[in-house]
Write a structure and sequence with these properties.
Largest sheet: 7 strands, antiparallel
Structural class: mainly beta
Strand order of the largest sheet: 9-16-10-13-14-15-17
Radius of gyration: 22 Å
CATH class of the largest domain: Mainly Beta
Distance between the termini: 29 Å
Number of domains: 2
Shape: globular
CATH architecture of the largest domain: Beta Barrel
Oligomer: single chain
Number of strands: 17
Mean pLDDT: 95
Helix content: under 10%
Low-confidence stretches: none
Strand content: 15-25%
Order of helices and strands: EHEEEEEEEEEEEEEEEHE
Length: 276
């Protein structure tokens, strides 16, 4: 888990870097755990673009990752650590005693051959084990956190991500997320022990536009460089100001520093301290 640099043989290579993939132990995915992923180019069922600057890219299979791990108290063996083109983290192939296989997000330090378990009762504090907050010691780093019991992990799933269990009081647990936000969860929510691997992903430099196109990203330009029909900032014969009191998004909503979260959102009561 690190970065590989190149000699500056071309302008694209001069500042480029890639992951060294040293932790990868298997190159081909498990055939029973993949499905074809159709491309939508950022368009909805009406053909309208809802996510701009997407399209093209290399074909890829979707790996079916188990974020729930609901086979409790059944030890599993880690078979391999694999690359997943659909996420920044690595995935681990695990196998149950009955032969069933599944993918999970690979925590930092998880090795092939290790035995891990998911349980609703007290568990050993070991990387890769999964349990509820009421049975995890305070101060432990966790990831793949459920928002509601039995829902499956929704939070802290990116490379290098980790949250810290602050306390368990009454029916709730206080967790400090990687953004700095302190949030309440039900003490029955499940989380996986450890931080997520491939932490150097954030330091990868693409070096050239072609690598972004292979990932499915199309060019992005300033609103000022567009026509009035395409953006509120568009138009003018040269270097003009935006002509508005405040900057706007392409859809005409206020941008840059404007809070967009609903003040009456139902989940606000679970946020003890906002992120910085």
């Amino acid at each position: 888990m690190g970065l590989k640099l190149f000699k500056p043989t071309t302008p694209g290579r001069r500042h480029a870097s890639v992951s060294d993939f040293k932790e990868i132990t298997k190159t081909e995915p498990e055939k029973s755990l993949i499905r074809i992923q159709k491309k939508h180019s950022g368009r909805n069922n009406q053909g309208k673009i809802t996510v701009r600057h997407r399209g093209g890219g290399v074909k890829r299979y979707y790996r079916i990752v188990d974020f729930l791990r609901k086979k409790f108290d059944a030890p599993v063996t880690v078979q391999s650590i694999e690359y997943d083109p659909n996420r920044s983290s690595r995935i681990a192939l695990i196998e149950y005693a009955d032969g069933e296989k599944s993918y999970i997000i690979a925590p930092n330090g998880l090795l092939v051959g290790e035995v891990i378990v998911s349980s609703q009762s007290r568990i050993e504090v070991k990387i890769g084990n999964r349990g509820s907050f009421e049975h995890i010691p305070v101060g432990t780093l966790v990831h793949n956190i459920e928002l509601f019991p039995g829902q499956g992990g929704k939070m802290i799933r990116t490379a290098g991500g980790a949250a810290r269990l602050m306390s368990v009081e009454g029916d709730h647990a206080l967790v400090k997320l990687s953004s700095g936000e302190i949030r309440m969860f039900s003490k029955n929510c499940m989380a996986t022990i450890g931080s997520i691997g491939n932490a150097d992903h954030q330091h990868v430099r693409y070096g050239k536009a072609g690598r972004k196109r292979l990932l499915g990203w199309k060019p992005t330009v300033r609103g000022k460089a567009m026509n009035p029909v395409d953006h509120p900032h568009g138009g003018g014969e040269g270097n003009q100001p935006i002509g508005l009191k405040h900057p706007k998004t392409a859809q005409g909503k206020p941008a840059l520093g404007v809070r967009t979260r609903n003040k009456k959102k139902w989940s606000n009561r679970f946020i003890v301290k906002r992120r910085k």
